[in-house]
Amino acid sequence: MKHPLTKAGEYSRRKFILDAAKTCFAEKYLDFALAREVTDPVDACSIKAIGDSFSASGDLKQLVVTVASSDSFRLRLAEGVQP
């Protein structure tokens, strides 16, 4: 018989990995939506909000809405415009 702490520890580890994967997916989706790699420090708040939201819900439709309503997406430069 496994000890309860072993099961709880395994659950925590798997949840952490799943949450990290969801956060990574959300960040890559933002990269795709912006047509650029999101590395600028000004995008940090959007990345965190989008990652936290998707990690909690796992809802792809909500991810699209969250990305589209993020400052990084709404305030992006038009294609071909230099900063």
Can you give me a brief rundown of this structure?
The chain is mostly helical and 83 residues long.
Overall pLDDT score: 85
Order of helices and strands: HHHH
In total, the number of strands is 0
**Termini distance?**
62 Å
Largest sheet: none
Envelope shape: elongated
Count, helices: 4
Task: Tell me the radius of gyration.
Answer: 16 Å
The poorly predicted ranges are none
Our count of domains comes out at 1
The class by helix and strand makeup works out as: mainly alpha
How big a fraction of the residues is strand?
under 5%
Which range best describes the helical content: under 10%, 10-25%, 25-40%, 40-55%, 55-70% or over 70%?
55-70%
List keywords for this structure.
4 helices; 83 residues; 70% helix; mainly alpha
Would you mind describing this structure in some detail?
The protein is mainly alpha-helical. It has one domain. 70% of the residues lie in helices and 0% in strands. The protein is built from four helices and no strands. The protein has helices at 4-34, 44-57, 60-68, 71-74. Helix 1 (4-34) crosses helix 2 and helix 2 runs antiparallel to helix 3 (60-68). The protein starts with a helix and ends in a 9-residue tail after the last helix. The mean pLDDT is 85.
Describe the secondary structure blueprint for this structure.
Layout: H1 4-34, H2 44-57, H3 60-68, H4 71-74
